[in-house]
Design a protein that fits this description.
alpha+beta; Cytochrome Bc1 Complex, Chain A, domain 1; 6-stranded mixed β-sheet; 5-stranded mixed β-sheet; 16 helices; globular
Length: 438
């Protein structure tokens, strides 16, 4: 069955996209705001994430228990996440209960009270969350890497804030942040799944969208805009840092500048990544894990932002394997950049990436997220058919030249965390960079 998409803008400026997937039973709904750690001042570090927590603590109609219970008693759930550029409030529920999720989601978005007593309680919770992240090497090494790669720019700030920034926060400051960053002009309301089966049901869904979300635009302030980010954050190529910490393994990230969301509409980097380190049959996985047994966790991925991106190799291994693992990562990267990928690698990456997109199109939550992201960053929707057509039309001989042009004279950033000594470790990594011409 063909997916039907409806797009509209409410009188208060809220953009709405609905994608009907009639053969599914579930429905996903989410509000995506351009609010994240990159938009915070140093004094507001962690406020986007803190606000996300507080919106679940109670409204005029519901306390925190009733907010969760409203959907859980129907088999659904409500959650949220904060990233460097966005905050998302989302729910999943059976399609026949979609109106309930609209009611609850609009309630926490428009009517959260942010009470002082809840602020003080949640502050303690977030401080514990930060401590937990600092004890988790996989999370900590990412925060350290972003500091190294993006310096003192907004992208470098930890999403949850720091112990100091959260400890020093006050409810009034957070409320001012909320009033200044949350509004109806900027976010996207995206709904996908089993939404309607006939025109009458479709009209009912559209009426409910207006009923619950067409509040006065003066209820809240205004959102940041991706368009206000005038220039990319600088990527500090060549930075090498090792942080000594008593762990069983060394966790390291090796990264290069990536593509922003608009640039990444061309599939070249995704095709390169799939073949190089994005799958269980990729070069990195084969070389480091299957052939040499150096690690359990190895792979690569790409994060796109409004004006920039970052491509990252991620690995965790025993200290005695660390330098060999870095050596092999650099060796494989240099070999691919100099000699290219095999034709069959790119062809398999093309079919694999297209298949992944087709499978994702069956998921209501994936479709809701994809549509929201497209409207938020590109101000347009991108069809599955056009994405697959682009993938199929890529000339296999263009993939590496595209990446070479972008990475010309770029030196990777490497951040590592584990029990090895700092100076000697950084020196040996620097020597490996020189060995492979980085």
């Amino acid at each position: 069955m063909q997916h039907e998409i409806e797009q509209l803008e409410l009188n208060n400026g809220l953009k709405v996209v609905l994608e009907n997937i009639p053969h599914r039973k579930a429905a996903a709904i989410g509000i995506t705001l351009p609010v994240g750690s990159r938009f915070e001042s140093p004094q507001e570090m962690g406020f986007s994430h803190f606000t996300e927590h507080l919106l679940f603590k109670g409204t005029q109609k519901r306390n925190y228990r009733e907010i969760s219970r409203s959907l859980e008693k129907l088999g659904g759930y409500l959650n949220a996440s904060t990233s460097r550029e966005t905050t998302v409030y989302y729910a999943m529920i059976a399609g026949r209960h979609l109106e309930v999720s609209m009611d609850v989601l609009s309630d926490i978005f428009f009517e959260s009270q942010l009470k002082t007593e809840e602020f003080e309680t949640e502050k303690k919770v977030i401080l514990e969350e930060i401590k937990m992240a600092e004890d988790d090497p996989e999370e900590l090494v990412f925060d350290l890497f972003y500091e190294d790669a993006f310096g003192d720019t907004g992208l470098a700030r930890p999403i949850a804030g720091t112990l100091d920034s959260i400890s020093a926060s006050h409810r009034d400051n957070l409320f001012d942040f909320y009033r200044g960053k949350y509004g109806t002009r900027g976010p996207v309301l995206s709904i996908a799944g089993n939404l309607w089966s006939a025109d009458s049901a479709k009209n009912s869904v559209l009426q409910n969208v207006k009923k619950y979300f067409e509040r006065s635009e003066n209820t809240l302030g205004g959102c940041p805009s991706m368009k206000l980010i005038e220039k990319p954050a600088e990527f500090f190529c060549g930075k090498i840092r090792h942080v000594q910490k008593d762990l069983e393994q060394i966790h390291f990230l090796l990264g290069l500048p990536g593509l922003n969301v608009e640039e990444n509409q061309k599939p070249h980097l995704n095709l390169f990544n799939n073949a190089f380190g994005g799958s269980g049959s990729s070069r990195l996985f084969t070389k480091l894990r299957e052939e040499n047994g150096l690690c359990y966790s190895i792979g690569s991925f790409h994060n796109s932002y409004a004006r920039e991106g970052v491509w990252i190799i991620s690995c965790a291994c025993s200290p005695e394997h660390f330098l060999t693992a870095v050596d092999l990562c650099l060796q494989q990267l240099r070999e691919v950049l100099d000699k290219g990928l095999e034709a069959h690698e790119i062809e398999e990456s093309q079919s694999g990436f297209a298949g992944y997109l087709e499978l994702s199109s069956e998921s209501p939550s994936s479709r809701a997220e994809s549509n929201a992201r497209a409207l938020l960053y590109l101000d347009r929707l991108v069809s599955l058919e056009s994405k697959i057509q682009q993938i199929e039309e890529v000339n296999i001989h263009e993939v590496i030249p595209e990446m070479l042009e972008y990475w010309q004279n770029k030196t990777p950033v490497l951040t590592s965390l584990g029990p090895l000594p700092v100076k000697s470790t950084e020196k040996k990594v620097r020597e490996l960079f020189k060995k492979y011409g980085f």
